[in-house]
What we know:
Largest sheet: 9 strands, mixed
Strand content: 25-35%
Radius of gyration: 35 Å
Helix content: 10-25%
Order of helices and strands: HHHEEEEEEEEEEHEEEEEEE
Amino acid sequence: MIRxxxxxxxxxxxxxALGRPRRGQATIMFAxxxxxxxxxxxxxVDGGVxxxxxxxxxxAADAAALAGxxxxxxxxxxxxxxxxxxxxxxxxQNGQGSIxxxxxxxxxxxQTGGFVxxxxxxxxxxPANASGVFVKTTVTVRTFFIPVLPGGPSSSTTTASxxxxxxxxxxxxxxxxxxxCGNTAKTTDGTLLPIVESISPFKLxxxxxxQTFVIHDSNLGEADCNAQGNSFKGLAxxxxxxxxxxxxxxxxxNGTKAGPTRAQVDGPDGCAPNTPPPYxxxxxxxxxxxxxxxxxxxxxxxxxxFAAFEVTQKDSNTHLGKLLGPYIVSGPGGEGWxxxxxxxxxxRLAG
Length: 351
């Protein structure tokens, strides 16, 4: 009987011992859960860094493509301007801290967005049919937690691309205070020069860019587009021209006093609405022709395009305008721009 009682106590002791938690179990469980926990943490942190790098690469590609297109807008057949240097510089400036974008590829594109054949890089002179640029950027960032996992990479790389086009600017208000005779304009020394080389396609005469012209005067002489009775003095009837389209007929004012500009020019040093004389800002002025000849009643003149002028006042009845070359504004654009056109253009992303 004593032996049975002793065996019973031994059984109970073993049962209780089996029911108690053993030392080391929590350590083992933590070790088993640590790997997936680190994996999830790594996915969250390193994934966030990757997405940030992706946005940085895209921002750099967009900015670099726009910079390349702006450079292209200044290019002519006689003086080509490769876009690579501008593209590389602007892409590098759009980094964030240690995240530094680099340019993988830069190529010229045409108005359709397709690569210009045979596809020269932006380091070469732009072909005659180049109307924009394609830019591809890359960003490499280090990973922080993923390398803890077996085979986890120590860095990740992302790329982004963008296209930007140069287009003829559309939607320019026709209610500027002045109208300039594009086929015969008068410089400040009295020389008569054409401002426009061709109407269709619209192209500024390169030798006239940078010249200062008399755009408003009580007597324009031969720079009046052959208006009857010397009635055209370079002034526009702004109220009558509001809402009119160009190419088309615009009303001119046969008086002498200029009024404030009404239109906002969204470009470098552009005039603000209601800027009064002496102005000292950039206006987008209509360019007129003497074919068809201006009419006296009603006083109208045929206008076919716009150019940017830096306008200043000589006296109350005389205003001067320095003809600018390619002038970039924001807003809508249309197809048809080619190198050397000059005039008012829009640079925009095209996907």
